[in-house]
Write a structure and sequence with these properties.
With 169 residues, the protein is α+β, with helices and mostly antiparallel strands. It contains 3 helices and 8 strands. The protein has a domain of 103 residues.
C-alpha cells in the first residue's frame, strides 16, 4: 500500500493567493510542484487551491456532490483556467481482465466519478468564459513543472555480480 504525499504549502507571494494563504494543502507531490510553479510564475495574477467548488451529479449513486477543483488560476491576460492534476492512468477507462474484482469495480467507479466531475467542470468553465484542463504527468513535464516522470527515466542495465579480485601470487 502506498503512502500519500501531503502537507501544508507555504505561499511565498501571499498577495497572489485568492483565499486564506495559511490553509493551502497539497495532496500529492505533483500538486505541490504546481503550487510552486503558480507562486513563482510572473504571468499568474491570482490562484487558489480547492476553493473553487463545482456541483456535479454522480451517475453511480444518483446524487449531487461537491467537486473541489484542484486549481483556479487567473492569468495577467485575464484568462481563467480551472485545473485538475491527475495521473494519466486515471484519465482513461480502466483496463481490467476481470471486471468483477473489488479493485476493478473501484477503478470503474472512480473513472465514472472523475468523468462526471470533469463534465461539470467543463460546463462551468464554458458558462463563465473559463477554460478547463487536466494536467497529467505528460503536461507537467512539458511545462517543466516536473523534471522527469518515472515513465521517462532511462532504465539502467543490470550490474554484473561482484567478484573479488584474484590475489596475486
Amino acid at each position: 500500500m502506498s503512502k500519500t504525499y501531503k502537507g501544508k504549502y507555504t505561499v511565498k507571494h501571499r498577495s497572489k493567493y485568492k483565499g486564506n494563504p495559511e490553509e493551502v494543502v497539497y495532496r500529492s507531490h505533483w500538486e505541490k510542484s504546481v503550487m510552486q510553479w503558480l507562486d513563482n510564475n510572473s504571468e499568474v495574477e491570482k490562484w487558489n487551491s480547492e476553493d473553487f467548488i463545482i456541483p456535479y451529479y454522480y451517475d453511480v449513486d444518483k446524487k449531487w456532490h461537491k467537486y473541489h477543483m484542484d486549481f483556479w488560476i487567473k492569468f495577467k491576460s485575464g484568462n481563467v483556467l480551472l485545473v485538475e492534476v491527475k495521473p494519466k492512468k486515471q484519465t482513461q477507462p480502466p483496463k481490467s481482465k476481470n471486471p468483477r474484482t473489488k479493485k476493478s469495480l473501484n477503478e470503474a467507479f472512480t473513472y465514472i466519478k472523475n468523468r462526471n466531475k470533469w463534465e461539470a467542470a467543463e460546463q462551468i468553465a464554458k458558462d463563465n468564459g473559463y477554460k478547463f484542463a487536466i494536467w497529467t504527468e505528460d503536461e507537467l513535464t512539458k511545462m517543466k513543472i516536473l523534471n522527469k516522470t518515472p515513465g521517462n527515466l532511462k532504465k539502467l542495465k543490470p550490474l554484473k555480480p561482484y567478484r573479488k579480485p584474484k590475489k596475486k601470487s
